[in-house]
Design a protein that fits this description.
The chain has 396 residues and is α/β, with parallel strands linked by helices. The chain folds into 2 domains: 2-198 and 325-372, Rossmann fold (3-Layer(aba) Sandwich), CATH 3.40.50; 234-301, formyl-coa transferase, domain 3, CATH 3.30.1540. The protein has helices spanning 21-31, 65-75, 89-92, 97-103, 128-134, 154-179, 189-196, 198-203, 242-251, 269-280, 285-291, 312-317, 345-353, 359-365, and strands at residues 12-15, 35-40, 56-59, 80-83, 108-113, 184-188, 224-228, 234-238, 299-301. The strands form 2 sheets. Strands 3-2-1-4-5-6 form a 6-stranded parallel beta sheet, with helices on both faces. A 3-stranded antiparallel beta sheet has the order 7-8-9, with helices on one face. Strand 7 and strand 8 (234-238) form a beta hairpin. Helix 1 (21-31) packs across helix 6 (154-179), helix 5 (128-134) crosses helix 6 and helix 6 packs across helix 7. It is elongated and about 75 Å long. Residues 384-394 have low confidence and may be disordered. InterPro entries: CoA-transferase_III, CoA-Trfase_fam_III, CoA-Trfase_III_dom3_sf, CoA-Trfase_III_dom_1_sf. It holds the Pfam family CoA_transf_3. Residues 368-396 are annotated as: Disordered. Residues 387-396 have a biased composition (Polar residues).
Amino acid sequence: MTENRRALTGIRVLDLTRLAPGPYCSMLLADLGADVVMVGGGRTGAPIPVLRRGKHAIEVDLKTRKGRALLDRMVEHTDVLVESFRPGVAARLGAGHERLSRINPRLVSCSLTGYGQDGPLAQRAGHDINYLAIAGALGTFGAADAPPTPPLNLLADFGGGGLLAAFGILAALHERERSGVGQHVDAAMVDGVLSMMAMPFADWGTPTLPRRGTGALTGTMPVYRTYECADGRYVAVGALEPRFFAALWTELGLGDGTEVPDHLDPAGFPELTRALETVFRSKDRDTWAAHFADSDACVTPVLEPGELAAHPHVTARHPDFALDRVPAVPKFSRTPAAPGGTPAPEETVAVLASFGLTPDEAARVVAPRDAATGDLSWPPITRPHPGSTQEGMPQA
């Protein structure tokens, strides 16, 4: 029914990616209603289980003539193909854009890699931390007296990788409406991080960000950092603007609002820091959270992941939130996004019909249901996992 349609309903996606960035990209597309088919088989590695929701899974060995022939037939009815091989590998497997676009000129192909399709590092292996390093971002993270510290693998893998790829794919699909033809999207995680660093790069070497670990947004300025509370937990303070700081100062009981110190004057930072540290240590985190609940002082509790499902703002916007089921985003007024479950094999068979497969052909390639959930641990710390040295493995 029309009211159940989502923004990408009717878009067909073949996902050849592994690990995290590519599967996150296709998860975003699936949440928006695209029919996403993960193509596994014949290679090591697998998508991270939590990123496989709402996707159909098939097993096709692209190193065989039969497998490539099947891919060709599916591509005839495909809108988007996403791959994360090292440059040149997709072409050797028969999945390169130049060849596939001759089969389906409307195809949008996206190659999601760390370093991109060209350049001196294009063939190098890497992970999020390497792309952050090359993009100049890692050199700005962490305390000045400690080694640079990556913000988990959020910035390159997910922001500069999966999200950038989804953005590029949607732009190419939009352009296709005008031109009638698809194109290739070269989504490089280094490029994505370079773009996301636009503001920090402009601030680099200025008083706002003079060096790593020092500056307005690095967590060292008294009004933009975290403070330990009486129970050992923390609150985050972001009172940058004068009126927000005035509210902070007054509501902490440090003044009546008539004499507020200059919170942006570095000369006063040591004294201001001591004052704020002392007062925040006087009560526990949740007491401070309640105290500032209706305030514009920009004070919030620092929540751990396990606390999110009980937080009133998270539950108000996402009543079904769980750590293994993050929300489908963004929110739409008419065509809401929705996280999918693990499709049953018969559902996958039905979807594969739209990719040009007969029911018998679809039944032969549908992956076992556990292939869409899996048990891969990544990074491979808690259980054995095959090495990722093969040329076809993704840069992730």
